[in-house]
Amino acid sequence: MKKKIAIIGSGFSSLSASCYLAKAGHQVTMYEKNETVGGRARQLTREGFTFDMGPSWYWMPDIFDKFFNDFGKKTSDYYQLDKLSPAYKIFFSDDNITIGDCMDDICQEFERIEPGSAKHLRNFISKAQKNYDIAINKVVLRPGLSPLELITPETALRVDQFFKTISGEVRKKFKNKKLVSTLEFPVLFLGAKPSNTPSFYSFMNYADFGLGTWHPKGGMYEIVKAMKNLAEEVGVKIHTDSAALKINVENNKAVGININGKDIIADVVLSGADYHHSETLLDPEYRQYSEAYWDKKTFAPSSLLFYMGFDKKLKNVEHHNLFFDTDFERHATEIYDQPSWPKDPLFYANFPSITDSSMAPANSETGFFLIPIATNLTDTPELRTQYFDIVMDRFEKRTGQSVKNNIIFKESFCVNDFVEQYNSYKGNAYGMANTLRQTAFLRPGLRSKKVKNLYFTGQLTVPGPGVPPALISGKLVSQLINKNV
Asked: Taking a C-beta distance cutoff of 8 angstroms, is the pair 359, 366 a contact?
């Protein structure tokens, strides 16, 4: 039976769900509080420079392909995709590692750093590839309703990998600290320390080394535009500048939402907004999770971001750059164990105009710098300035060039902005971490246990943080709605 469905938020998971639900014949309307769609994946344009304000890594291209294929489309119908070569560069205090676009090149680089490591790397990635196939084609396609979902013939044979950690597995085979950091880096996308992440999640290493790093011409926002266009093609109505103020409930059943003070009637309500915030839109008796529940959870980091336009081309950098020239483990401790502003932070720098000239004026560079930080930190202009200086001093030193006087403009984004613009719990940037105790059925549910016809999607529920998981989350919740309405 076809239903009238109201969706709160327009991030990747909401856009994904809206497409699947409209395709199933439902009347779907999406409401976004900000003036553009995309949720955290927004775009900033200024003086001819184009920035992705949120996600900037295009990994797991197969997930995007599958999404568009479900509608008889291809990614190439909407945007041009290029594989980056090299994929990225890592700066250490005494050396740099360049990650190529194929295993042969990556093995050669590993062998340069640690003779004999190439053999171990090929074995590690081969195992990671098997885990990727199981994870993507079996485990993550389940809605997180029961612990039995994790039990398959394949996972039963790998149960030990859920109790060992990525960190432990990597350090058994690789001794050089640079290689260890390189292999532990991908699980940071899952929002947890490598020492707390099950070794089964090595499938992220296959996503990195096996499938490669890609770039949609024009930036990641091209995916948002593609999904918006697809949603409208299948009949979704989208309203921006439309803040949800309340989820209306009658007789323990969702009956609509209040948008900008006006009640909208709906048979089903789906929220792709921050899960914690979504529950605050309910009267207290209808909330599933207490403040104490949320406070005890491990959240992925927040971030301090700087968006800069440079009036010259930069040297000695690639499209993606990781600055691991300080203590990786100490920074992780300052994020997860003893939340505080980091003394000597690692950071990430993104220059998409190096491979995509459309993202900056001629002879200029678009620059995006990100420092991962703990959630809920004090965020002041003075602290932003202090950390801007730290990052730029290190950047100039490690890349051997002067850039401060070439900055045309800079804008920043941090904890306060995540809270104000995205209603993000404690200012988190990436949702809830994928630790063992926060995996699958142990994450907040796609369906409300207290309110009929109320559903949730996004990075705080299953499968977890990241753009590809968000696409899957939208598909999972749409299947659950179709099954139950």
From this structure: yes
294-347 pLDDT tens trace = 999 999 999 999 999 999 999 999 999 999 999 988 999 999 999 999 999 999
Q: Nearest-CA neighbor of 300 among 205, 376, 200, 369?
A: 376
Return phi, psi of residue 369, to 5°: -115, 140
Phi-psi region of 274 (alpha: psi -120 to 50; beta: other; left: phi over 0): beta
Please state whether the peptide bond connecting residue 216 to the residue before it is cis, i.e. omega within 30 degrees of 0.
no
CB neighbourhood size of 237 (10 A): 13
CB 213 within 8 A of CB 84: yes
Strands (E), 315-362: 320-323, 347-350
3-class secondary-structure state, position 357: helix
Lowest mean pLDDT segment, chosen from 27-31, 135-139, 160-164, 327-331: 160-164
Q: CA-CA distance, 230 to 20, in Å (whole number)?
A: 10
**Sequence-distant (≥ 6) Cβ neighbours of residue 417 within 8 angstroms:** none
Long-range contacts of 179-183 (CB under 8 A, 24+ apart): 179/97, 179/110, 179/113, 179/114, 179/117, 181/90, 181/92, 181/324, 181/328, 182/90, 182/97, 182/99, 183/124
Residue spans of alpha helices (H) in 407-466: 415-422
Tokens of 76: 């190439």
Burial classification of residue 284, based on how many CB atoms lie within 10 Å of its CB (0-12 exposed, 13-18 middle, 19 or more buried) = exposed
Residue 203 and residue 165 in contact, taking contact as beta carbons nearer than 8 Å:
no
Nearest to 373 by CA among 336, 410, 348: 336
Residue 233 predicted with pLDDT over 80: yes
For the chain, what is the total number of helices (H) and then of strands (E)?
A: 15, 19
Residue 164 confidence (pLDDT): 81
Name 396's Cβ contacts closer than 8 Å, sequence gap at least 6: 402, 403, 404
Report the distance separating Cα 84 and Cα 215, nearest Å.
7
* Per-residue tokens: 144: 């997180």
Q: What pLDDT does residue 148 have?
A: 53
Type of residue found at 71: F
Coil/strand/helix, residue 225: helix
Q: Are 355 and 215 in contact (CB under 8 A)?
A: yes
Give the residues across from 431 on adjacent strands: none
